[in-house]
C-alpha cells in the first residue's frame, strides 16, 4: 500500500467512499444467493448491507453530493420491502427450534399446522422479494451507487482530516440515542396493586412497547456509525460499542416475543393461548427474563459515568491525530490508518 493511499484514506471524503463501497459490495455479494433462496442467512446479510449503507449515507450526508436515487430514505424503503420474508424466516426458526421442543405433543401438532400456514405466507413473501430485486428502483440504486463510486461527488468539507471531524460525525448519532424517551419506559410505583411485576410488565409493553422498539432502532443506528470507526479508538471505545449492541439485542428479544404472539393471533385467532398454553407461558417467561436483563443494562447506561465516559472517549480524538513532531506523526498515522483499512476490508462485526 502506498503512502498516497494512506493519506487519502485519512480524509473525511475517502472514509465516506470506503464505507459506501464496502456496504454496496456486501449487498452485491449476497444478492445472487437471495435469488436462489437456499439459505435464509443470505437475505439477512443483504439487509444488513442495506441498513449499513443507509447508515453511511445518513452519517456522511454533510460530505456527499448524491442524486435522489442514492439516499438513506430510498435505501430504507427498499430494505423494508425485503423485510417481510426475513420476519417470517425468523418466526419459523423461533417456533421450530426454540419453542417446539419444549411444548407437549398436543401443542406440537398445533404448531406444525401453524408452520404449514407460515410456509404458505413465505412463498408469497418470496415473490415480493424477487419483484423488489427486479424492480426499476433497486436496479437504479445499484446503477447510481456504482456510478457515484466511479466518480464520487463530494463537498469541500470532504478534504478535512478524519481526526479533526470524527467527533462531529459520531456525537449527533450518540446524542439521538442517549436522549431517546424510550430509556424512561419503566414500571410505575406499585401502589396498592397486588399484581406481580411480570404481569405489570405485560401491561406496560402493550401500551409503550412501540417506544422501546424505536429505542432499539436508535441503538442500531448508533452502533453502525460507531462500529465504522472502531479501529481508530481503543478498547474502552469498543466496550461502549458492545454495550450499545447489548441494548439493541435485549430490546430485540423483547420485540421478537411480541411479534411472535401477534403472528400466532393472526394465524390461529385471538384465543390461540388457550390451545397452546405452554407456548404462551414460555413466551411470557422469556419476555420477563429479557425485561430484567434490560433493567440492569438500562440502569448502568443511564448513569452519568457511562455517558461522560463515552463523550470523553469520542472527544479525545483518534490515534492518528497530528502530533507536534512531524516525523512521529507520519509513522503513527500510517500505522493507525493501515489498521483502519484492514478493519474496513474485513467486514468485522457486520453480521447483525
From TrEMBL:
Extract the InterPro entries matched here.
CHAD_dom, CHAD_dom_sf
Q: Name one Pfam family in it.
A: CHAD
List the SMART domains hit by this protein, alphabetically: CHAD (SM00880)
Residue intervals of the CHAD domain: 9-307
Any transmembrane segments, and where?
none
Task: Tell me which stretches of the chain form a coiled coil.
Answer: none
- What this protein is called in its record is CHAD domain-containing protein
Organism expressing this protein natively: Rubidibacter lacunae KORDI 51-2
Q: Taxonomic lineage of this organism?
A: Bacteria, Bacillati, Cyanobacteriota, Cyanophyceae, Oscillatoriophycideae
Amino acid at each position: 500500500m502506498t503512502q498516497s493511499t494512506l493519506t487519502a484514506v485519512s480524509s473525511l471524503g475517502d472514509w465516506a467512499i470506503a464505507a459506501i463501497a464496502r456496504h454496496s459490495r456486501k449487498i452485491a455479494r449476497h444478492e445472487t444467493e437471495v435469488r436462489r433462496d437456499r439459505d435464509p442467512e443470505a437475505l439477512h446479510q443483504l439487509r444488513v448491507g442495506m441498513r449499513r449503507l443507509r447508515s453511511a449515507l445518513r452519517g456522511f450526508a454533510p460530505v456527499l453530493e448524491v442524486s435522489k436515487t442514492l439516499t438513506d430514505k430510498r435505501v430504507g424503503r427498499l430494505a423494508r420491502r425485503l423485510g417481510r420474508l426475513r420476519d417470517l424466516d425468523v418466526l419459523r426458526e423461533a417456533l421450530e427450534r426454540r419453542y417446539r421442543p419444549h411444548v407437549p405433543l398436543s401443542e406440537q401438532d398445533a404448531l406444525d399446522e401453524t408452520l404449514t400456514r407460515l410456509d404458505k405466507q413465505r412463498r408469497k413473501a418470496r415473490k415480493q422479494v424477487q419483484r423488489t430485486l427486479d424492480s426499476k428502483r433497486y436496479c437504479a440504486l445499484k446503477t447510481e451507487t456504482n456510478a457515484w463510486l466511479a466518480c464520487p461527488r463530494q463537498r469541500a468539507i470532504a478534504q478535512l482530516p478524519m481526526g479533526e471531524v470524527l467527533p462531529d460525525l459520531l456525537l449527533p448519532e450518540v446524542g439521538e440515542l442517549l436522549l431517546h424517551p424510550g430509556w424512561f419506559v419503566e414500571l410505575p410505583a406499585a401502589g396498592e396493586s397486588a399484581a406481580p411485576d411480570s404481569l405489570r410488565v405485560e401491561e406496560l409493553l402493550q401500551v409503550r412497547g412501540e417506544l422501546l422498539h424505536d429505542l432499539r432502532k436508535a441503538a442500531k443506528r448508533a452502533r453502525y456509525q460507531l462500529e465504522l470507526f472502531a479501529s481508530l479508538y481503543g478498547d474502552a471505545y469498543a466496550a461502549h460499542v458492545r454495550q450499545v449492541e447489548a441494548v439493541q439485542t435485549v430490546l430485540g428479544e423483547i420485540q421478537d416475543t411480541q411479534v411472535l404472539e401477534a403472528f400466532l393471533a393472526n394465524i390461529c385467532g385471538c384465543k390461540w393461548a388457550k390451545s397452546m398454553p405452554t407456548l404462551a407461558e414460555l413466551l411470557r417467561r422469556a419476555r420477563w427474563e429479557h425485561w430484567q436483563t434490560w433493567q440492569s443494562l438500562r440502569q448502568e447506561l443511564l448513569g452519568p459515568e457511562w455517558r461522560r465516559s463515552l463523550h470523553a472517549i469520542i472527544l479525545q480524538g483518534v490515534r492518528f491525530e497530528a502530533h507536534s513532531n512531524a516525523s512521529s506523526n507520519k509513522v503513527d498515522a500510517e500505522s493507525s490508518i493501515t489498521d483502519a483499512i484492514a478493519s474496513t476490508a474485513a467486514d468485522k462485526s457486520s453480521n447483525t
